[in-house]
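Figure caption, in words: inputs first, then the predicted bound structure.
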Amino acid sequence: MNLKPETLAEIEEAIPKYPEKRSAVMPLLHAIQKDQGLLSNGAAEWVAEKLGMEPINVLSVITFYPFFRQHKIGKRHIRVCRTLSCAMSGGAKVCDRMLSEFDTKLNGISPDGEVTIEFAECLASCGSGPVMLVDDELYENLDEAKAQEICNRIKAEAVQA
Ligand code: FES
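Bound structure (FE2/S2 (inorganic) cluster present):
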């Protein structure tokens, strides 16, 4: 697999931190997803060989946790909470505004390649819903106007990049 040198270094550093090599499966998958943007079957096989596991066991981890993905996404990953508190306080409207602003569909990649917008289950900030994550940054107490501001910011950052 064609990983960046810094990813390979991160992997080599992670493995000895665990008493059993197989326990390093999560950090290795995070590192590879960050490097490649997704976790292919080839990545699962590579990790399995590295950690002395069966590929099916690595694939089980990948498919169990919602933060691992096997498909490509846009440059920015937006996850809007759809669980009860956020749903009742307007999460769907926030999501619709984001989708319309980027002219995309749920789980797709926007035509400019900038974003993928998905629903997420509870993001553990129920008292300040609706909430969403843009990459690793949490935005709370959202409404359509705040969603619009976030869209504008993402677009401005894309132009600067
Ligand atoms: S319900 Fe949205 S953060 Fe918990």
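The chain has a mean pLDDT of 95.
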